[in-house]
Structure formats: structure tokens, C-alpha cells
Design a protein that fits this description.
The structure is a homodimer of 562-residue chains. Chain A is of the alpha/beta class. The first copy, chain A, is built from 22 helices and 21 strands. The first copy, chain A, folds into two domains: 239 residues, Alpha-Beta Complex (2-enoyl-CoA Hydratase, Chain A, domain 1), CATH 3.90.226; 251 residues, 2-enoyl-CoA Hydratase, Chain A, domain 1. The relative contact order of chain A is 0.09.
Chain lengths: 562, 562
């Protein structure tokens, strides 16, 4: 089975997740009053990797990095925008979905991480609609196929053009022998609640469905003749803008470029440092606490802009996670550490909590929520280490609860006269950052002893030292000086000796006990099935559908059902 | 990757799911008053396939077929039993789990179906506890490892012997580079609600956990010294028996051997016929309606025994599904048909509904529920065809709603003067047979239009013809004489042309819209991850952990995280 990655285009050596509208190759972002338009007009020759052209508005990860950037900028830079139109810049095609040649030539790990990122972007659109009052209208003009329809599915309202040829489709199963990889099956069944037999028919019709049946089967929301398209889109945008909860009461802030320095074995940001140990296959991600107290009032926020500590830290952490996920496949374990004053971290949490009704504070908190969710679904072992000098308080303490396990030092190490490590809880640990299955990390941790959540809550604000944290169930291991270094070393060595695949599967199962939501089903159920299918010879083998696509030769399948 | 199956032992050509206690090789079933004991004492040389020995009470599908048989017999043949003890017949080992050499040498499809069946058996134990008042106590004496601990997890109460060596463990990840395949991860997190970091530690310790920590981490319910073991087991059994809801008010009925005749291309049972078309890769399963009216009252039931139509039909259907699943991997589509009088089928539903408080009727209805669940998780396309002469009423109509799609004929075919096909709803379609995610098949079908459930419910008892059934949303396609044969032919041909893997993944996603339960998480989430891992070279490749196990050579892993 082919597991050789395409070469990155233009001599690039890593995938970069930072961009801005001036550099977009594939999307155009325009704003007119309270309506923004995101126009997809893919540059065929602008692929992220060599070896394929992005024909028919098909996309690769590079296209989606721009979309993700635009979605974030709409929230932070455009507080006045209440409705976002998703449109095609090409005739007779909305979007043909993920590029097939890109998929056929990608390493398994790239395919999986590509799907994960596109899923996160679409979840981000729904989060924007739900929590920022920016709702999405998709104008499906022309073929809206595969990932193209999955993009439409992330919108609140899908308008299909009634021109005899515009259609929606999920042709992955009949055409490519894979599944729709960006939530398509789950959104068809759980968001749009298409009847399961209709869904079965829909997902096996290569050419898709057009006209009235698409509305009857709830695949789209309305059907509009081309002659009335523009007026209808305008009317729908106006209606949605009128109902938006968006508070257009301030200037946006610029998401300025992140300051980053790449080293052979790490990355340095302003508040985040990544140190890679290739022998141990670990990356240590150290988060620095705030360098100053939060501003006196929310009016000062605009002046700080993207340099406001919680926002800058979140953006840097997000970038670091994406860098490691997509450029460092052999790094199996992420070790979170922190440095700084817990009191200042807690003070920032208090500031955010006190001003949560303010649009920018609201955006920052939801941004943190999304970054932490990204950590949760990262398929690397996560361990958080709490030592003297660390500042795991509130928002940062979520990284203790997001970890597969945590180690906390009792007292101090020999020769270190800093006070013992402490963990501090704030209100941020009890609500604003739910995981993708709807529970807070503490609720999820204490599924079997729900009273422990309350026992932790009454300790908000206290500096909780190791033995007490252990007693409260907040850390996995509290260890003293004598055991500390050995235990950590043995753990990391042992972890490195296990099969990366088995760890990925195990962690994906253990991290999300309890309830499920559409979002968690996408990551847990659909993703796992897709990963399976992405390994099957029927899809990726020499005679499989992905490899044979476009060759004129039909795929040859192993006919056994599993 | 090795995908060649072991040869079946003793010259057998198919896996048989029918057995009885007199033929058990691996389990002993004994009954003493209201307490039954199931003793696992595996015959090393009694493996289902050639090429391995079942050492250390490890199991293969053959061992689990006996367990599944015993669980059913306890419910039907032993109404007086209120508590079932699971014990080992060997010293110092409870059960070492699924046999590793068996796994290493099995075809992918066999491994997956093996895990599916063992999952269904363990779900059946929990169903027995919940709905039949037969609760399970597992006595974990000695090593209780992997599938052995997963068996324990299916029990209501786990007693771990405190002898310095008895332990529970899930060593799959560190030892074999696979996941616990029989619900272990899900039951640890969702049933026993073990804290996620404790679960992470537990699932990566090859030697497992013994003593007090096993209780503290909720991995077992109590720790008992060997000297007090027997008295404690007796006391727990007595306590549980006293609380049981089991109604010991009748004689059991014998689950007599099924009458079956195997042909090259099919199987004939009393009320079920299977016709295999190898060219089209379909199996048509025809269910015959009742040959007589239900008895006048419940007192007559004992006399009918296993020949009572609903019970015999359910047992035959269950066996047919298992036969096809495990012996006919290339049959991609199951076509359900029925023949008989709908009124008689409905009359049996009415009889069951009226007498549902009777222990045997209760058992029969829960048995149907389990058989229908088995259909739901069968990884073959399911299509139900409703023609003149069919009797899809109530319980049988569930096979219309379990199907990926259904076809119903409008009117009659030329030359057939039987009345047009009709569908009949009964109370059985509105409650007693929930799917594994907790919804009825009609609720699941109508997720997007819940009022349609009510619209169907008021039509209970009517003979609903095709166009009306279509209007009510009960069938996928209502077709007349002109289109009928062509549409069905094209559908079956097209389905056969698709990748079996992609269809499996698609159907698994579309069949279970809406909520999730522990059971559905086991089949949807854990199974999908396990299927993925069962394909990965790190597990099953020449240098993978499963293949290298016991060779003295360490596995060599692809270190990339996916």
C-alpha cells in the first residue's frame, strides 16, 4: 500500500497554518455591511503538494487553511458581520470536494490529519453560528460534491440553484470506495436528520440529487431558480442578520502575524516554546503565564488587540499543536509544562469571566474552547507535568485535565528553593470550555464520582499542592523528589515502546467517556471508520478505487465483507 | 499482510453456532437452586481452527459459542435461576482472553466477526441481568487478562481474590498492539466509570493491577482473601437472588435442536429459508408467517415450547444471520422477504403484548429484540422486499425498518391474482424492540420528523398498501409492475459493484443516527478503531506485535502517529 507522501510544493519543508487574506490563493473574503462573502475560486496550480492540480474547485489542506483563517478573522476582525455567504467563484461548479489525486498520493497520516483539520474548520463554522451570531448561508450553484457538499452541510442554510444541473452529492462510496471524510455522513443523519433509507440512496448515487427531491429529503433548505437567486440570497441574508445575536458594538481587532522562530528541534513563540526530543519522541510545550496584570477594564482591550495574553497564548498554542500534528508524525508524546505566576493567570480568568458578555471576551473564550478541543482530539499521548514555578491555574489547568495523565511534584527538587508546585482552579474549569461531547473536562474526569466536581469547585482560588490535588483526584500521580525523575523517565520510555496505532485507538476511546454529540460522533465514529477504510486495499491498494480513479480502468475489489 | 484463515479443525467446512450443554468442551453449566455456575475450563486441544492450542483458559469463537448458548438456555430453560456465577475451572488463571495465535492467524473478516459475536454475547449477559433478573457475579481468581477481564466487565459484580497474584488487566496495547476487542475500553470508561487517567495507566500495564488499587480505581467491586472466598461468593449470590426480579413461576422450556438442512446454496429451517445467489452475491432470507393462531392463553405456552412460532422463527433467523456472517463473507446483500398471513403474525404480537408480564413471553420478546439488534449490526447491505403474499406485520415489519432500504410493490405483478402487498403495524413497532442506541427503529427512521411516528401509530392494525406506506414514510420505494423488476435488478447489480468496505463503513454510520449508548459506542466507536488497528502493520504485519508474540523477537513498529 502506498504510504509515500507527495513532496510539498515550492520547496517548502513544512506545512504552515499561518496565512492572511492578502496571501489567499483560493478564497476571497469581502465584507459589505453586516454580510460577508467567502468566495471559493481555487487556483488549480496552487496545491500544497506537487503532483496534482486542484481542478473543479477541489481542495487540499492548503485551501482549508485559508478557510480556517478566514473564519477566525471574521469573528475577531469583523464584529459587524452577522451573516457569511459561501459562494463559488467558478461557473457550474460549487466545489468538487477533496482533491482525489491528492488523496491517492498522500501518506495515511496526512490523509487522516487533513480530514481532522477540515472537520475542525467546519465545526468552527457551526460554533461561530451558535456562539458568535455569524450564521452561514451556502449557495450551492453547480455541482456540490463530496467535500463540497460537506462544506455546505456546515452552513445553517443551503440554497440549491434550480437550473436543471446544480446538484448535491456524496459520491465517495460509489466513486472512490472511501467515506465522506468531513462529517458528511454524520451531518446527513444527525444534523439534517435525513431519513436513513434516503441517506442510503443519496450516498450511493454518484451523480447526486438535484431539484425538488433535494428539498423533500432535507438535503438542502430551499430550491431557487437562477433568475431569482441573487434577490433570494440577499433576502435570506437580511432575515438572518436581523435575527443575529452578534453585538456590533466595537471595532474588530487585527489578528497580527504570530512571532515565531523555528529551530531544528523546536519553535519559539512569544508565550509558547516547543522543544522536541527526537530520541525520546517527545515535544515539550511550555506555556508562559501572563507578563502583566489584566487591564483595569474592558475598554482597554482594543488597545492590546492580539497581544492580549490569553488571546496570543491561545493562538500560539493552536499553531504549535497544528505544527506538531502535521509536520512531526514521529513525535508520540506531548508534554505540557507552564511557567509563571498562577495568580496572574487566575486574574485573567477573572477578567474574562467578569466581562464575558463583551463580544471580544466572548470570542476569546470560545477560541480557547476550540483550541482545547483541538488538544483533546490530537492523536498523541498527552502528559502534563506540574512542577515548582508552573502556573497551571484555571484555563491553563484545563491542560492538566485534558492530559492522558498528569504528574505533580510533592515539595521541591533538591537545590530548588522555589515554593512547591500548586494547581489553582478558577470558574474557567467549570463551564466555558466544554469538550466536544458536551461535558467539562472535570465532569468527564469524574463521571464515576460526580460529587468530586463539587468538592473541587469549593476550592476555587486556592493554591492546591500536590498531595491535596491527589486527594481531590485532580492529578494522576503526586510524587516526591525521590521518585520524580525515574517515574517520568520510565513512563516516557515505556510509552515510546508501544505501537503508535494502538495508543491512538486507546486514547481516542478513553478520552471521551460518557455522552456523545454530533461533533464527538464525527471524531470518534466516522473518523475511525474512515481511518479503517483509508487502509483497505479496496480504496488505497494498487487496484483500489482511489488509485485507479481517472485511469479508465475499473477498480478491482476484494469482495469479502468484514 | 496475512489474510489467510486457519483451517477449521476436524475437517469442518463451516462454523456452527448450534450446540448444547452435553456437547460443551470448554464450559460447564451447573444449577443449584436459584444459583447457576458457569465454569470456564477450556480444552486446550478443542480449538475451532487448526494451528493453535487454547492455553491458559484462552478462548476462540468456539468457546464463545458455548457461552452464548449457555446464557440463552439459562433464560429459557432455567426460570428458577436468579444469579449466575462465572468461575474458572483452572488454578491461578481465570481467563487469558482471546487466544493470540488464533488472532494472529485469522483472516481480517474472521477477527472482526469474532469480536462482534463476543460483544453480542456480553451485551446479552447485561440484557439478562437488566430484563430477566439473572445477575452475574464474576470470581476473578488468578490472572484475569484481556478478554478475560472483558468477560468480568460484563458481570454485575466482580470479586477479585486477594492472594497476592490474582489480577485484572487489559494488556492488549502494550503486549499485542491491538485494542481490547470486546468492549473493554468502553466498559472501563462508561460502565465502571474508571477515571480516564487511571484507565490510561491500567490499559498500559502489561501485568495488570491487583489488590486494593483495583478496588480504589473501580476496576473490581471487592477484594476477598482466598480463605473467605467461598463464603463471600455464597453470601453475594444470596443477596442478589433476594433482590432479583426473576419470576420463578413455571417450568423452563427446552431449546430443542433447530431443524436445518444445508444445501450448496442455502439453508432450510422450519420457518426460515436462505437462498444464496453467488453470482449476484445476495442471500434471500424468507420468513414464513405463523402456521396457526396463537394459543388461547399463556398456560398453553409450555406445551408448545420451542415450537411456539415467534420463538422458533427468532431462533432460526438468529442462526441464519450468524451462518451468513461467519461462513459467507462474499455475500454482500441480505434480502428479506416473508410469506404468510399478516393477521396471524399480528395476532401473535397481540398475544405477546397481552401476556408480556409472563416470564416466558418476556424472554421471547427480549430474544426478538436481541435478534433484531444482531441484524442491525450485521455488516451486509440489508434490503427488504414487500410483495403480494408477504406478511410484514409488527415484529416482522421491524425487518422493513431495519433495512438500509425497502421496496414495496404497488398492486400486483402480471398474472398474480393475490391481493396487493400490505404492511401492518402493531404495538411491537412502538417499544419492545429498541435498537442498541435506545430508539425504536421507527423513532430512528423519523429523527427529522418525529410526528411521523405518531402518524404511523394511529394506523396500527390496518393493512397499509404501497402508496399509503410510501406516504407515511414507512418504505423507501413504492413501485408498480412496470418498474419493479428492473429497479430491483439495477439496485442489486449496482450495490454489488461497490467496495464492500466502503459500504460497511457507510451503513454503520447511517443506521444509527441520534443518541448513543454504551452498547452503540462499543459497536460504532470501539469496533471501528479496532478494525483499523487490525489492519495496521504494527499489529498484523510480519514484524507486528501479533505476529511476533511468543517468538522472542520484539515487534518493530512504524513510529508515525496517524
Amino acid at each position: 500500500m502506498a504510504d509515500v507522501a507527495h513532496k510539498l510544493a515550492n520547496g517548502a519543508t513544512r506545512i504552515d497554518f499561518q496565512t492572511d487574506p492578502a496571501r489567499y490563493k483560493h478564497w476571497k473574503l469581502s465584507v459589505d455591511g453586516d454580510v460577508a462573502t467567502l468566495t471559493l475560486d481555487v487556483d488549480e496550480n496552487g496545491g500544497l503538494f506537487e503532483g496534482y492540480q486542484l481542478k473543479m474547485n477541489s481542495y487540499d489542506l492548503g485551501v482549508d487553511i485559508e478557510l480556517a483563517d478566514a473564519i477566525e478573522r471574521l469573528r475577531f476582525e469583523h464584529p459587524g458581520v452577522k451573516v457569511v455567504l459561501l459562494r463559488s467563484g467558478k461557473d457550474r461548479i460549487f466545489c468538487a470536494g477533496a482533491n482525489i489525486r491528492m488523496l491517492a498520493g498522500s501518506a495515511h497520516a496526512h490523509k487522516v490529519n487533513f480530514c481532522k483539520f477540515t472537520n475542525e474548520t467546519r465545526n468552527g463554522m457551526e460554533d461561530s453560528s451558535e456562539n458568535s451570531g455569524q450564521s452561514f448561508i451556502c449557495v450551492a450553484s453547480g455541482a456540490t460534491a463530496g467535500g463540497g457538499y460537506e462544506l455546505a452541510l456546515a452552513a445553517d442554510h443551503i440554497i440549491l440553484v434550480d437550473d436543471g444541473s446544480s446538484s448535491v452529492s456524496l459520491p465517495e462510496v460509489p466513486l472512490l470506495a472511501v467515506l465522506p471524510g468531513t462529517g458528511g455522513l454524520t451531518r446527513v443523519s444527525d444534523k439534517r436528520k435525513v431519513r436513513r433509507d434516503h441517506a442510503d440512496v443519496f450516498c450511493t448515487i454518484e451523480e447526486g440529487i438535484k431539484g425538488k427531491r433535494a428539498v423533500q429529503w432535507r438535503l438542502v433548505d430551499e430550491l431557487v431558480p437562477a433568475s431569482r437567486l441573487d434577490e433570494t440570497v440577499k433576502a435570506r441574508a437580511k432575515e438572518r442578520a436581523a435575527k443575529s445575536t452578534r453585538k456590533a458594538d466595537g471595532e474588530g481587532i487585527r489578528l497580527t502575524p504570530l512571532g515565531r522562530a523555528f529551530r531544528d528541534n523546536g519553535i519559539s513563540y512569544g508565550f509558547v516554546t516547543v522543544e522536541i526530543d527526537r530520541a525520546r519522541r517527545t515535544a515539550t510545550i511550555t506555556l508562559k503565564g501572563a507578563d502583566q496584570a489584566p487591564p483595569a477594564d474592558v475598554a482597554a482591550l482594543g488597545g492590546l488587540g492580539a497581544a492580549f495574553w490569553p488571546l496570543q497564548l491561545a493562538r500560539e498554542l493552536d499553531d504549535a499543536i497544528l505544527e506538531l500534528r502535521n509536520n512531526e508524525f514521529e513525535i508520540g508524546t506531548l508534554i505540557f509544562k507552564s511557567e509563571g505566576e498562577a495568580a496572574r493567570v487566575a486574574a485573567h480568568d477573572a477578567f474574562l469571566e467578569a466581562n464575558k458578555a463583551h463580544w471580544l471576551v466572548n470570542e476569546i473564550r470560545h477560541y480557547w474552547k476550540r483550541v482545547l478541543k483541538r488538544v483533546d482530539v490530537t492523536s498523541r499521548t498527552i502528559v502534563t507535568v506540574i512542577e515548582p514555578g508552573s502556573c497551571f491555574a484555571g484555563t491553563l489547568a484545563e491542560l492538566v485535565f485534558a492530559a492522558d495523565r498528569s504528574y505533580m511534584l510533592i515539595g521541591s527538587l533538591e537545590g530548588d528553593n522555589r515554593p512547591p508546585a500548586a494547581l489553582t482552579l478558577t470558574r474557567a474549569n467549570f463551564g466555558p470550555y466544554p469538550m466536544c461531547h458536551g461535558l467539562t473536562r472535570l465532569q468527564s474526569r469524574f463521571l464515576g464520582e460526580p460529587d468530586s466536581v463539587g468538592r473541587a469547585e469549593v476550592r476555587i482560588g486556592e493554591a492546591i499542592e500536590a498531595e491535596e490535588a491527589d486527594k481531590l483526584g485532580l492529578v494522576t500521580f503526586a510524587l516526591d523528589d525521590i521518585d520524580w525523575a525515574d517515574e517520568l523517565r520510565v513512563f516516557l520510555e515505556e510509552r515510546t515502546s508501544f505501537s503508535p496505532d494502538a495508543l491512538t485507538g486507546m486514547e481516542a476511546n478513553l478520552r471521551f467517556g460518557g455522552p456523545e454529540t454530533m461533533e464527538s460522533k464525527i471524531f470518534a465514529r466516522l473518523t475511525a471508520w474512515q481511518n479503517w477504510i483509508f487502509q483497505r486495499p479496496n480504496a488505497v491498494g494498487e487496484e483500489g478505487a482511489l488509485r485507479r480513479y481517472g485511469s479508465g480502468v475499473r477498480p478491482s475489489y476484494d469482495l469479502r465483507r468484514v
